[in-house]
Specification:
This protein has four helices and seven strands. Helices cover 49% and strands 29% of the residues. The chain is an alpha+beta fold. It has one domain: PH-domain like (Roll). It is elongated, with a radius of gyration of 21 Å. Strands 1-2-3-4 form a four-stranded antiparallel sheet. The two termini are 30 Å apart.
């Protein structure tokens, strides 16, 4: 289970950054145009050396920003795992939940976790720039939290879920892992047998 835990964090972290050359170059170009225009308006002089320097800095800034975002995401995931392990010593597997807004993937302030017997959703009370949750609430699967549909992405990088949390629609995604998918499907099937 330790190997599966490491694999899930390793697969989830890059999804938040989801490096894309086109997006990175476009973002760098936008930064270059904005900063270049500001310098042109302030100085009134078009200097090729300065414009080249601005272009280099905008590309470097974009790469550093993406790298730092992935690093922060990994830190938050590890802090959530440590928090859950301290709160629930019987935890066997932590699964960070992600949200997709357009093409951007963000880390939710919630996670799935498994014990030997069951699956739970844990919602964290966590400040925007804090890596460590302050408090949380748990919702056992089948009692306030259910999954209606599971969709594997065509590129096999994510699994999308249509769920209900406290009678409200709740969508989330996780990294794609066959073992994880099988564990979740087992829990879903076991509750269907109880109905």
């Amino acid at each position: 289970m330790e190997e599966l835990q490491k694999r899930i964090i390793q697969l989830s972290s890059p999804l938040v950054r989801l490096f894309n050359w086109k997006q990175t170059l476009l973002t760098s170009l936008i930064y270059y145009v904005i900063v270049g225009l500001i310098f042109l308006l302030v100085t009134g002089i078009w200097d090729w050396n300065l414009q080249t320097l601005i272009l280099v800095f905008s590309v470097v800034y974009t790469f550093v920003k993406d790298f730092m975002m992935e690093r922060q995401t990994t830190k938050v995931m590890n802090q959530q795992l440590a928090y859950l392990a301290a709160k629930y010593p019987k935890i066997r597997l932590y699964v960070p939940l992600l949200d997709q807004v357009g093409k951007t993937i963000l880390l939710k302030r919630a996670a799935l976790y498994f014990t030997d017997k069951w699956m739970y959703l844990e919602a964290f009370s966590q400040k925007a720039f804090s890596a460590t949750p302050k408090e949380s609430i748990k919702v056992p699967y089948g009692k306030g939290f259910t999954i209606q549909d599971v969709f594997e992405s065509s590129n096999l990088k994510t699994i999308s879920f249509q769920a209900t949390l406290m009678n409200q629609e709740y969508k989330f995604i996780t990294c794609y892992d066959e073992t994880l998918l099988e564990k979740i499907k087992q829990v879903i099937q076991s509750t269907k047998g109880e109905e």
